[in-house]
Amino acid sequence: MWILLLLPFIGLLWVPFYNETLPELFGFPFFYWYQLLWVPITALLTWIVYRSQRHRGDE
Prior knowledge:
Layout: H1 6-13, H2 15-18, H3 30-52
Helix pairs in contact: 1-3
Protein name: DUF3311 domain-containing protein
Transmembrane segments: 29-50
Pfam families: DUF3311 (PF11755)
């Protein structure tokens, strides 16, 4: 499950992929809303990995 934490890095480190102005979403260029879209995605992935790990008190 730890591999899920690599997805945001892969999605955001390849800047030429999203270094565009169009398409726009609510007036925001693609460059900005693509990065902002990763904020909730990263939080969700972090939560999934956290919940999948076994904690000391769960035994």
